[in-house]
Amino acid sequence: MKTIFLDYRFAEAVLDDPRFEGAKGEIVSVLQEASVPLLDCTQLDARRGGVKRRERRALAGDTTKRYFYLPVDQKQLNRDLEAAFVVKGWATKPPIVPPGRSGGPGTGLRGDFKKGRLHVEVQFGNMARWYTDVFKFQLSYSLDEIDAGVLVVPTQRFANVIDENVAYFERVQRELPWAKMSLTLPIWVIGVEPEDDSPIRQCYEQAARLFEGSQTAEPIASISYGDRVAEIPASLPEEDPAAPLAD
After folding, report:
1. pTM listed for this prediction
2. pLDDT the model gives residue 194
3. CA-based, 20 to 30 A from 13: which of 39, 109, 150, 164?
4. Burial group, residue 37, by CB count within 10 angstroms (0-12, 13-18, 19+)
């Protein structure tokens, strides 16, 4: 996969220190050598490994149902990355608060990967999850368990073919600098996307043809692959400053 980077609080300089140089290279190589697994575009049933699909409301003045498709096998992608990190000697599911640590209540929070004083979170899930990831970074840093965090997320285009409302690089890039007073540790953000998205496109279009051909009761329309990957995910509505505060 291709990689792009965001350097928050001089994280890259920290990772260029000799203590982290090997780990930094391992992270980049795992991501750049990873391929994108796809769901079965010949199977209609998503419960049997078929491509997932989502319905969009009909356009104004038209009753035709519209659909887009999600060909990326998110679970397999996570499994593949975990296996690659394990091969390179990274610990998986490390506890954020080490067992036996005194000074507070127990917590079940766990990270994705850890090696030495470096913590990696890979997030291909819901947008809200990346806020949890950086909270885990900050907690580990406050406990003096790590010196930096690495957050891996898809780019917007790639996120759009994984699922809806998936965390994506461009949004993290917009929002993270606003947390400068609360997130005090160095965080290296890595955005990933496929080197060549033509297999994803082909799977998307094949799944669309299959589903369209199966619908005999009423016509449907498929949103094109190009329109889907270019779609800007909806943000939460702006708060009305004149609105009364909730109790």
Report:
1. 0.90
2. 97
3. 109
4. middle
